[in-house]
Amino acid sequence: MDCRKVVEALARHDPAGRPEGAVERHLARCSDCRQTYEELRAVDATVREALVFEHPPDFWEDFYQGLKSRLKAREI
Amino acid sequence: MLKDDGLEPRKEEEGPNGRFAKSAGEFSEDPQVLALIARVKQKDEAAFKELVERYKTQVAGLAFKMVGDYEDAKDISQIVFVKTFYNLKSFDPKKKFATWLFRITVNAAIDYWRRYKKHKHEDLEEAEGTPIGVGLSPEAVYFRKDASERIKKALEVLSPKQRSIFVLRDMEGLDITEVATIMNMPQVTVRWYLHRSRTKIRSELARRLRAAGAKKKA
Questions:
Q1: Cys-Cys crosslink for A75: which of A70, B124, B172, B176, Cβ 3.0 to 4.6 Å?
Q2: In this structure, which long-range contacts are made by residues A9-18, counting pairs with CB atoms below 8 Å and at least 24 apart in sequence?
Q3: Does the structure show a pLDDT above 80 at A74?
Q4: Which stretches of chain B sit within 8 Å of chain A by CB?
């Protein structure tokens, strides 16, 4: 498997899994592709860690107030 | 003409070899949730409050990941629960309630995003007041805020469908079957969208991470 095909396979792979078979064997011997894989893992980790739902302290209070008004007005 | 209220699945064109996912329909819901739903159908407000309490974090969390803004996520969550209150009769108790709720959330977020995106577009830079990382070290807060901003910007390159599928699968961690049910698409189409989304988001993020690295060095 050449580097181009490995990079294409890496772009498709599910972040929850690990590369297998020919891709895994290629990564074991190609430092460039290994570096690409590590970069991708860093990107995937950034995605998982970012956008954590840590809301402002008054979020739910405002939410319930707004919900009550919308239900009253049946605003949809 | 039928009104699109976000409660019904939005028909997706069938993929070349696709079948619409049905397996989530075999799920049997928690009896406590079913009992609550039955009471809400009778317009029992206490039961509705309990139902909201049970699902509000999931709904608001998903909405936040879809639109990247707490105020918008709050609005969308309110819309979702108003729709839930008045339209619960259309929920099939043989199916998973969270899936039905997530479908309404995704549709509401897409509608909201389409309606308000152009007005909200430029304010991503000024999310100073966003309280990301309460209780974390200043470095951790900085890293997370920085990462969140990059993700928000990277997500903007995706279409609403790509974004929904990416958020449901790679950020919320739902399985492909459930994503297919929520999006009313064949699994093969979901996988196709997911591949496109991952490729786009990875290349966009890698570009932004490299640019940030170069800026730091300079």
A1: A70
A2: A10/A36, A10/A37, A10/A40, A11/A40, A11/B198, A11/B199, A11/B202, A11/B203, A12/B195, A12/B198, A12/B199, A15/A41, A15/A44, A15/A47, A15/A48, A15/B170, A15/B198, A16/B173
A3: no
A4: 5, 52, 56-57, 60-61, 64-65, 68, 70, 73-75, 77-79, 81-83, 85-86, 131-134, 144, 147-148, 150-152, 170-171, 173, 195, 198-199, 201-203, 205-206, 209
State pLDDT tens for residues A48-63. Answer: 777 788 889 999 999 9
Domain B23-121 maps to which CATH number in 3.40.50.960, 1.10.1740.10, 3.40.50.1580, 3.90.1150.10?
A: 1.10.1740.10
ipTM of this model?
Answer: 0.72
Contacts of B205 in chain A (CB under 8 A): 43, 46-47
Q: Tens of pLDDT along B42-82?
A: 989 999 999 999 999 999 999 999 988 899 999 999 999 99
Q: What is the pTM of this model?
A: 0.74
Note the CATH number of domain B130-218: 1.10.10.10
